[in-house]
């Protein structure tokens, strides 16, 4: 019941900067390939060494001849590096690279130790800088709160929540913890459960399992869609839904993820005829006084990857969702499963 690393509830956005920008502020940075990167592709090694730049942008730099190792200019991202290789890369600033700056943004931290922290993210907070949101993100807040996480890729963010999705997310404070959390997520050993308010009263059995594969919508690249894997690109996806309470205009639903595809709950709810309140991208509309998508990550459970302690956290719905529930006559109590 876990999610795939950096896939859940968010759309990957490409770095739109090009290698022709920022020539007057270029930086020559040394490169040293350690044993841990031996045999890796050049572009993957550079992502580890220079995490403030996206892989797509680093690939552009490689193709432009901006990378040298062992005295040779390398132009193929697939080149396999070797331990002991040394050289340099000519970096040019992009909006993305300049977005990795600390900012004083308050966070609701529900748990913290020397290895990780769990944050209750408010709706409206972007998790990671991307086009249109290069500042004011969770990443900026994490850097402002603890500058040492600048040494951890993506400031320790291992999975994402959509900007307008509220709720619990876990963040690593060290590289070792990050690697261990990513392994837990990949092994489906992190449980994430959500609450959703959706249009139209629920019909049929209270519990329903949805196993529609999900891929990019070929008609709108900003959307995901259910797809037929026999003829379209995509990945298997499974969500278990349980009706908590019906209302005259909609339903209050508990959602348990078993995979973590981009926008999975939103896509699956729309596919079964219950788009989320406020989710215009997938057929929802503002209702009950709520304009943002009515989705909240209410429960997070996993075994601490460094201490072995079983951890479980709950976050009740925020005020805007509670007000929407009251407007529809739904009980304000919630069930995290």
Class inferred from helices and paired strands: alpha+beta
Q: Shape, please? A: globular
Order of secondary-structure elements: EHHEEEHEEHEHEEEEEEHEEH
Radius of gyration: 21 Å
Q: What composes the largest sheet?
A: 9 strands, mixed
Helical residues, percent: 10-25%
Describe the protein.
The protein is α+β, with helices and mostly antiparallel strands. Helix content is 17%, strand content 25%. A hairpin with a 7-residue loop joins strand 10 (214-216) and strand 11. It is globular, with a radius of gyration of 21 Å. It starts with 26 loop residues before the first strand and ends in a 10-residue tail after the last helix.
Topology of this protein?
Blueprint lengths: L26 E6 L9 H8 L5 H9 L3 E3 L2 E3 L11 E6 L3 H4 L10 E4 L3 E6 L16 H8 L20 E7 L2 H12 L4 E9 L7 E4 L3 E3 L7 E3 L12 E8 L3 E8 L6 H8 L23 E9 L6 E5 L4 H9 L10
Parallel strand pairs: 7-14
Antiparallel strand pairs: 1-4, 2-3, 2-4, 5-6, 6-7, 8-13, 8-14, 9-12, 10-11, 12-13, 14-15
């Amino acid at each position: 019941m876990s999610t795939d690393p950096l896939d859940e509830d968010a759309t990957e956005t490409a770095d739109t900067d090009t290698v022709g920008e920022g020539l007057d502020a270029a930086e020559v940075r040394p490169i040293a390939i350690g044993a841990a990167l031996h045999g890796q592709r050049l572009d993957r090694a550079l992502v580890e060494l220079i995490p403030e730049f996206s892989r797509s942008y680093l690939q552009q730099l490689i193709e432009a001849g901006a990378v040298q190792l062992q005295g040779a200019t390398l132009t193929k991202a697939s080149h396999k590096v070797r331990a002991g290789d040394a050289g340099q890369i000519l970096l040019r600033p992009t909006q993305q690279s300049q977005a990795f700056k600390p900012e004083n943004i308050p966070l609701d931290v529900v748990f913290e130790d020397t290895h990780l922290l769990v944050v209750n993210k408010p709706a409206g907070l972007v998790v990671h800088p991307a086009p249109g949101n290069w500042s004011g993100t969770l990443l900026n807040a994490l850097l402002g709160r603890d500058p040492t996480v600048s040494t951890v890729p993506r400031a320790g963010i291992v999975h994402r929540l959509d900007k307008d999705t509220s709720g619990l997310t876990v963040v690593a404070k060290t590289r070792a913890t990050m690697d261990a959390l990513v392994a837990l997520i990949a092994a489906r050993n992190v449980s994430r459960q959500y609450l959703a308010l959706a249009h139209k009263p629920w019909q049929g059995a209270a519990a329903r399992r949805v196993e529609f594969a999900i891929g990019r919508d070929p008609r709108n690249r900003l959307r995901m869609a259910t797809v037929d894997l026999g003829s379209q690109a995509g990945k298997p996806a499974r969500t278990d839904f349980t009706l908590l309470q019906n209302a005259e205009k909609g339903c209050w639903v508990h959602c348990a993820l078993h995979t973590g595809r981009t926008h999975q709950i939103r896509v699956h709810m729309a596919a079964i005829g219950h788009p989320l309140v406020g989710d215009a991208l997938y057929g929802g509309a503002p209702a009950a006084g709520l304009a943002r998508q009515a989705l909240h990550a209410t429960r997070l459970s996993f075994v601490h990857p460094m201490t072995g302690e079983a951890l479980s956290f709950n976050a009740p719905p925020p005020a805007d969702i509670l007000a929407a529930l009251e407007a529809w006559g739904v009980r304000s109590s919630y069930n995290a499963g």
